[in-house]
TrEMBL record:
Organism this protein belongs to: Pontixanthobacter aquaemixtae
Keywords: Membrane, Transmembrane, Transmembrane helix
Listed transmembrane segments: 35-54, 66-85, 128-151, 163-186
Keyword Membrane carried by entry: yes
Protein name in the entry: GDT1 family protein
This protein's record includes keyword Transmembrane helix: yes
Length: 187
């Protein structure tokens, strides 16, 4: 159950200001808050969470205990690096109305974002990976809803860059601590 809650909160928090959330916000601002856009965003969030849960569960099953712990540490470090990477916000002047095209772009953006690596890490390190997957999917849906609802106000309401840097530092520290514990060098 803790994997569910950790994944839910972590994915929701680390999705603030992510490329996919800003894309949803930009499209909602330009084309309006359509139900189709919201449903596509939620479906993609569920799909990417399922894919990362499968990947985390599958790879972790091949590794010994210490290897699983190192895998989690690597996934957390990748998530930290993605969060720290500057997110150049390019506003779309004339976005497409094609929900298929929007869905494909969202899929591409989500498969490499830090939040999905967290789902992978929680699924790999958890005894019950599907709780982590469900929590991650709900966190991803929450992030899509926030982007869809706030639209053009998203970037103005929060200091997104500072929040993402703070979360990147926290994830990097956690990754280092977990990696050291897997090597037997910490506690």
């Amino acid at each position: 159950m803790s994997g569910f809650l950790f994944a839910l909160v972590a994915v929701m928090a680390t999705s603030l200001g992510s490329r996919d959330q800003l894309l949803i916000a930009n499209i909602a601002a330009k084309l309006g808050r359509s139900t189709g856009l919201l449903l596509v965003g939620c479906a993609v969030a569920i799909g990417t969470a399922v894919a990362m849960t499968f990947a985390g569960q599958y790879i972790a099953a091949m590794l010994p205990s210490a290897g699983k712990t190192m895998l989690v540490a690597f996934a957390l470090m990748i998530a930290a690096a993605e969060l720290a990477w500057p997110n150049k916000r390019s506003l779309i002047k004339e976005p497409t109305r094609s929900l298929v095209a929007i869905g494909l772009v969202l899929l591409a953006r989500q498969m490499g974002d830090g939040s999905r690596f967290l789902i992978f890490a929680f699924a790999a390190g958890s005894g019950i990976p599907w709780f982590a997957g469900i929590g991650g999917a709900l966190g991803g849906i929450g992030a899509v809803i926030v982007g869809w609802f706030l639209a053009e106000e998203l970037a103005g309401k929060l200091p997104l860059r500072k929040l993402r840097i703070a979360m990147a530092v926290a994830l990097a520290i956690a990754a280092i601590a977990i990696g050291l514990s897997a090597r037997g060098l910490l506690g």
